[in-house]
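1st attempt posting a full record on here, be nice pls
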Amino acid sequence: MSPLNDKKMINGTDATTGEPCHSRDVLEKRLRRKLDLRAMPMIVVMATMGSGNQYGAILSIIYVGYIVMQLPSGLLSLIPSCMVAWGGVSVLTGFYTMALVSRLFLGFVEGPFIPGAVFLLSGWYKRDELALRLSIFFNGNVLSSAFVSVLAASVVLPDMQGVLGQAAWRWLFYITGSITILVGVCAVFILPDFPHNTRWLTPEERALAVSRLEEETGLEERTTTGGLWDAVSDWKVWWLSTAFIIQTIGQSILLFFPTLVATLRYDLTNTLLVSLPPWVFATTFSLVLSRYSDKAQRRYRYYVASNVITVIGIIISMCTMNKTARYISMFLMAQCLAAPMVLWGWVNNTFAREPAKRAVAIALINGLLQIGNIIGSFIWPSNWGPTYRYSYGICIAAFGVSTAMFGVMHLHLKHLNKQIEKDERDTKDADELRYPIGFRYLV
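the predicted structure (as tokens):
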């Protein structure tokens, strides 16, 4: 029985501590409100301080550090410390002679952030709450692109050229890197730790934070080494990783989005500004899609919906150079970021019962998908522009393959759910069941 249900209540008071007890629903709403008002804003601000879009070798080199640092981040999460470090490295990126080296180290220090943040959120929110929160978190990266574009267009490029003898693009790194360091220091004092030891929750809230996840999935405790072995020996982790790599190649559209907007032939400042509305639309769409995914307790169909809309946008952009039509296609393509937000909720749900395994699985998948980013960095050569038909064709093929692979996982989890349901019908002793009664994988 959960710690919360073990409480002896006498006239609304815990007989053990003498503290007032509250109804489960009221207490759970209060817990979610505290998390949403304290943890989520900090996580989003940290994500907004992401590195943004770069090009060529400088773009691809960062993912080497990302790949190397994923597994350590799954075993030991040091989110605020990494944030401070990547702010410092970002400042160093402003020195041109150190650009490639600093971007490599930026991958090392920024790499642990995403898997660490995803694991942190999955340790607090239930399955029907998680996709929306992950969408809010990942939209911080979208805000990063919008933030950098607006900052560059409105402040840095017009006003900072030549200040203290430095080029404007250097000041962009100096400013964003300094803000990142400040945010990382604040995060040390604001972010929660684990449900059982977060000091700004009451004992009653800490007990509920632990018990509500245990009740939903029947958490299985494993050592870090055991979780590592469970993850690397599970074929689902490698299947999902491969599917994510291919999906990420298709989503290389997002890496080169400013280049695609530049085909509309505006000047530099206007190109940066017209990039903003598609990001706003993509953010709104992804939040709505994730919310409905949580509410319906379904993942695959909402992921497919995002991919279909993206492919429609790609086809429009392939077939015409009309400025209006291509700009509309930018909105449809930008929302492709909604797909991985739903997918990350699905990954967490699939490995929800084993926290140690889930931490390693998240790190492995996020590390390996960076291979897709590296490949995607090189499928948009300038000589394929301005139509980029070959690049678009590769993206359509990638979306088709990844959709099929995630479809296989969808069918596998549906099969497991049928087996779990059969075991519940046929087994008389609930203690003999591998899964808690009522548990089903989200599909």
